[in-house]
Amino acid sequence: MIEEKGPGWRLSRDSERDRFSVLIEGENWAFELTEHEGSQLAYLATSLSKQHHQMQEELMAEESISLEMERDPWWGCLDGDRESWSLQLVLSGEFESSRGLEVSWPAPAAQQVVIAMRKMWDSVY
């Protein structure tokens, strides 16, 4: 089992579990995900973070940015400015299961959880 946590977030991945091997947690909420849902979530979140990083130098200090991206079964939105951002994610219930959910992390927890996702799924992509 791999677990990472910080103020306002926790992420764990247990490959020994059959169906729901990934746990994501925020302030006062937690959900279990399948391996596929977890890896797609990590890919989407890190892609948004990379986009922000690439645009960071072009933004003025007082300028805000909103980036949206979709990667089935997830939709994500990064909102923030040059230095910090929050992250909102929606799992569509149309694919692997009939479940759907919406999660979010404020800054700086959003940046920390994305770094943890990147490390956790580094071997996947």
Our count of domains comes out at: 1
Secondary-structure element series: EEEEHEEEEH
Give the rounded overall mean pLDDT. Answer: 91
The total of beta strands comes to: 8
Alpha carbon gap, first and last residue: 19 Å
Here the CATH topology equals Transcriptional Co-activator pc4, Chain A
CATH superfamily: Transcriptional Coactivator Pc4, Chain A
Major pleated sheet? 4 strands, antiparallel
Structural class: alpha+beta
Task: Please give the CATH architecture.
Answer: Roll
The number of helices is: 2
What Rg is obtained from the alpha carbons, in whole angstroms? 14 Å
CATH class bucket: Mainly Beta
Indicate the overall shape: globular
Detail the topology: elements first, then pairings.
Blueprint: E1 2-6, E2 9-13, E3 22-26, E4 29-33, H1 35-55, E5 64-71, E6 74-81, E7 85-91, E8 101-105, H2 109-120
Antiparallel strand pairs: 1-2, 2-3, 3-4, 5-6, 6-7, 7-8
Helix pairs in contact: 1-2
Briefly say what this structure is.
The chain has 2 helices and 8 strands; from the N terminus they run E-E-E-E-H-E-E-E-E-H. It is of the alpha+beta class.
Q: What would you note in describing this structure?
A:
This protein has helices at residues 35-55, 109-120, and strands at residues 2-6, 9-13, 22-26, 29-33, 64-71, 74-81, 85-91, 101-105. The chain is built from two helices and eight strands, in the order E-E-E-E-H-E-E-E-E-H. The two termini are 19 Å apart. 26% of the residues lie in helices and 38% in strands. The protein is of the alpha+beta class and 125 residues long. A four-stranded antiparallel sheet has the order 1-2-3-4. Strands 5-6-7-8 form a four-stranded antiparallel sheet. The longest helix is centred in the middle third of the chain and has 21 residues, at 35-55. A hairpin with a 3-residue loop joins strand 6 (74-81) and strand 7 (85-91). Helix 1 (35-55) crosses helix 2.
